[in-house]
Task: inverse folding
């Protein structure tokens, strides 16, 4: 790991913490350094040089100004069991981010992230990095709920604050998150300032320091079929807003069904990502008054339907799910676009 005496530290939950919830008892936490990284040499060698012999699981998140293809990615946070690294894309620039590219794209490094779509979009369009081998805790949460027989309604996506508050995955409130949200509303350039303030460093570390603990709690619950769907959906979510002219031909292939599931006779319906182009002036019909139209489509189809919105792309609808459900959603949405 990187050498030197860190000026900043944070507490990460011990992966062996008893029970489902974390109290404020320091005995359940490990004090680890926070490294602010402006040069690749400050990152762990096993991260920079992914290898089948030293496979890693790390937490990952990104911060920036209006994070998407156009908004600036300013910090990429990496959580290891014994340290947190804040990769400073402002000071380190493209050279630093390009040094991270092999790891972010590697099959040998599992990236644990909550809602990867916009982070993936920013990494791809700003640095040419294709986020790969992701465990998305938002997707994992939904799969566990389905696995345990609970149904969720359309758009009922768990926030990271909500996930961390769930006693099964931490049972901790994250009041500081709202404090940072208020600051971002007041000053959207919050993440661009250098040197990073104590609040910026703390907020960046807070967004990743619980991810590995949550990951291990989820892995205890997910069955083999759910793990397979998690891998596929994670790959599709990484691609979601990264639409290009070659139809994702430059992206890694989607995961294939493991032999042991095939041997059990499990034949899941293929899951796909469809990108539907919306003609000029028709998005209002797709969304409907106060979102009523798009909400009814989501209730009719067992598929994820996402709209680029203000961050874009503004003229496309992204649909993720089993082929038959995706085709059904496409047909309904195309019907909404037809002039009456």
Result:
């Amino acid at each position: 790991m990187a050498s030197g005496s860190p000026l900043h530290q944070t507490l990460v939950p011990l992966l062996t913490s008893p029970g489902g919830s974390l109290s404020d008892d320091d005995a359940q936490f490990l004090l680890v350094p926070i490294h602010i990284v402006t040069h690749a040499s400050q990152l762990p060698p096993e991260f920079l040089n992914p290898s089948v012999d030293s496979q890693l699981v790390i937490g990952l998140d990104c911060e920036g100004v209006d994070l998407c293809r156009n908004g600036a990615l300013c910090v990429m946070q990496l959580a290891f069991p014994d340290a947190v690294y804040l990769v400073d894309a402002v000071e380190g620039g493209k050279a630093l981010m390009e040094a991270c590219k092999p790891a972010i794209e590697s099959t040998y490094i599992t990236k644990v992230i909550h809602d990867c779509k916009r982070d993936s979009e920013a990494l791809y369009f700003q640095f040419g990095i294709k986020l790969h081998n992701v465990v998305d805790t938002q997707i994992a949460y939904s799969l566990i709920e389905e696995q345990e027989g609970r149904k969720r309604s359309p758009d009922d996506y768990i926030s990271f604050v909500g996930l961390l508050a769930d006693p099964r995955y931490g049972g901790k409130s994250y009041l500081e998150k709202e404090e940072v949200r208020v600051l971002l509303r007041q000053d959207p350039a919050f993440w661009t300032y250098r040197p990073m303030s104590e609040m910026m460093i703390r907020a960046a570390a807070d967004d990743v320091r619980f991810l590995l603990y949550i990951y291990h709690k989820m892995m205890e619950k997910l069955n083999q079929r759910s793990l397979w769907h998690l891998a596929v959906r994670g790959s599709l979510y990484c691609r979601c807003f990264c639409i290009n002219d070659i139809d994702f031909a430059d992206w890694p292939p989607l995961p294939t069904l493991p032999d042991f599931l095939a041997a059990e006779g499990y034949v899941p319906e293929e899951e796909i990502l469809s990108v539907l182009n919306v003609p000029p002036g028709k998005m209002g019909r797709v969304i409907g008054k106060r979102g009523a139209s798009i909400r009814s489509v989501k209730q009719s189809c067992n598929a994820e339907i996402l709209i680029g919105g203000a961050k874009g792309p503004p003229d496309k609808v992204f649909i993720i799910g089993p082929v038959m459900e995706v085709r059904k959603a496409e047909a309904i949405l195309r019907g909404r676009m037809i002039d009456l």
In short: The first strand starts at residue 8 and ends at 13. The mean pLDDT is 93. The CA atoms of residues 99 and 231 lie 25 Å apart.
